[in-house]
Amino acid sequence: VDRRDGKLALAYIYIAFIAVLLGGIAGLLQVLVRAGTLQLPSFLNYYQVLTVHGVLLGLVLTTFFIMGFQTAAVSRTSGTFTNKQRTIGWIGFWIATIGLVAAAAMILTNEASVLYTFYAPLQAHWVFYLGLALVIVGSWFTGLAQIMRFVQWKKEHKGQSTPLLSFMVVVNNFLWYVATLGVAIEVLFQLIPWSMGLVERVDVLLSRTLFWYFGHALVYFWLLPAYMIWYTIIPKIIGGKVFSDALAKLTFMLFLILSVPVGIHHQYTEPGIDPLWKFIQAVLTFFVVVPSLMTAFSMFATFELRGRELGAKGVFGWFKKLPWNDSRFLLPFIGMVAFIPGGAGGIVNASYQMNELIHNTIWVTGHFHLTVASAVALTFFGTAFWLIPHLNGRTLTKRANSMANCAGILWAIGMTIMSSAMHIAGLLGAPRRSDYSTYGGSEQAAEWLSYQIAQAVGGSILFIAILVITGLVIYVGFFAPKGEEDFPIAEVAPGAAKTPAAIENFKLWGVIMIAVIIFAYTIPIIDIISNSPLGAKGFRLW
Ligand code: HAS
């Protein structure tokens, strides 16, 4: 990657890791408070700490790492950015960073303890909403620069199949643009006027619906960069090839059309949305599982083909042939393993009736610590340790690699303890997002306590892992020996079929995407507005 593009990517990635450390501290405080072993000082409240944790890790780490990684990925596979493209990328970075500082200031002054989902009726200072809006607008700019570089590549290579990694980045950016429209409408037309006192009330159901239109696609915006790494980088690290360019591209297009029209599966328990539409979005949610199953298939195929090349025998012989000592592989691999129970839990959540059992319990927190905080986060960490030195002309030394492996193993141990305890306590009815409480000495609440202590044990191990990770980022960023670190990109396997042009046709998939979204959301939104207790005022435009 060209050094000038690398600087932009690094700027984003460093902010992501500051968020990891601060968000990790907030996480530690939380598990200790929930276990009843710590009382927060009077100037901090539980929901403020929970907001710091969710915003920094759920929104900042992800968005900033993704923008940094995608910039590097496009520069590596489509070519160096032009000055104009790079300037657009930097404008985005500064807009996002200013927004981040504004939002952080509001959270720190306890003016925005509204959690990372920030929908009404919790209300924050308008500067918080504006700050988050700027983070999104900033990412739009940097994403645009990535798309422009890809389009330039296409013009220069007419008729050729596009570079897989760049193609995936462009799909993820389109997904992001369409998804963020929902939250942009919510913030601009509901939350900001309401928090400024321009309107007295807003429709809460509409606010939540617009948020979840964005909120579930958001999780795929996090997941797809991890999939980019699994599909295009991991095969090279293990010495293999991409199993199929067509399958990988089709997987991403399926995410493009199916990620948005499923948000109502977060709202099964809410009155005001017709059960028919809940059911329809439940069905669509089961469709969006398919591209993940295709990914699992593709990863197994990649591992097995490489294993056989190295002489592996039997059904699982390939397992022994994988490069277990290489942190570039090990951390994402642990993430993949975590995604198996994480994904299975997602299917439980999506099942309309079973959702009744787990909704708003700490089971859900267990689910997303396996998905975003393991599958995605470990893939990002394992990548950062070689990507940072690649971008700044240093190397990932053997010792740093071993430390990275330790961090990955600590993460696996801590997360297994914490997230298993969360899943079990959730099934016993323990609520999520609640401070330590004995609930008036209730017998049922007493059952939860031992699991909350287990969560504190797991969470403390995770915090140690975060300290190691932070140390490693500082080391590879500023102290590792100068040298050249490779940015591995796998070639497509020679036997793979040529990718049909239709799979790469953005117009075709774009039309299908819009059609499915219109189908899934038009009637629910019309119903919400027309049944709003605020009448037409429920949807204020200004
Ligand atoms: Fe989810 C709630 C349904 C995936 C994140 N989810 C959440 C929340 C978050 C989140 C943050 O339907 C909480 C939001 C809040 O604050 O309220 N989720 C799903 C479904 C999937 C799913 C069906 N979620 C994710 C991903 C996330 C994420 C990915 C982040 C990155 N989720 C829900 C539902 C709720 C929910 C409901 C609302 C619950 C409620 O009531 O509040 C699916 O996409 C999952 C499909 C995945 C698979 C796994 C495939 C496995 C692979 C690994 C292969 C492994 C290999 C290694 C190759 C089917 C690809 C093998 C090696 C060996 C040695 C074995």
Question: Can you give a write-up of this model?
Answer:
With 542 residues, the chain is mainly α. The protein is 72% helix and 0% strand. It binds heme-as. Heme-as (HAS) binds at residues 117, 219, 222-223, 265-266, 285, 288-289, 292-293, 295-296, 299-300, 336-337, 339-340, 343, 346-347, 349-350, 355, 359, 364, 367-368, 371-372, 376.
- The total beta strand count reads 0
What structural category do the secondary elements indicate? mainly alpha
Instruction: Report Rg.
Output: 23 Å
Ligands, deduplicated:
heme-as
Give the number of helices. 14
Unreliable segments of 5+ consecutive residues: none
* Approximate helicity band: over 70%
Strand content: under 5%
Question: What is the residue-mean pLDDT, rounded to a whole number?
Answer: 95
Between the first and last Cα atoms, what is the distance in angstroms? 45 Å
Could you give a short account of the major beta sheet?
none
Features:
single chain, 542 residues, mainly alpha, binds heme-as
Short description:
With 542 residues, the chain is an all-alpha fold.
What's the topology here?
Elements: H1 3-34, H2 46-78, H3 83-108, H4 126-156, H5 164-195, H6 204-237, H7 245-258, H8 275-309, H9 327-350, H10 352-358, H11 362-392, H12 398-427, H13 443-479, H14 506-530
Helix pairs in contact: 1-2, 1-3, 1-11, 1-13, 2-3, 2-4, 2-5, 2-11, 3-4, 4-5, 5-6, 5-7, 6-8, 6-11, 7-8, 7-14, 9-11, 9-12, 11-12, 11-13, 12-13
Bound molecules: heme-as.
Heme-as binds at residues 117, 219, 222-223, 265-266, 285, 288-289, 292-293, 295-296, 299-300, 336-337, 339-340, 343, 346-347, 349-350, 355, 359, 364, 367-368, 371-372, 376.
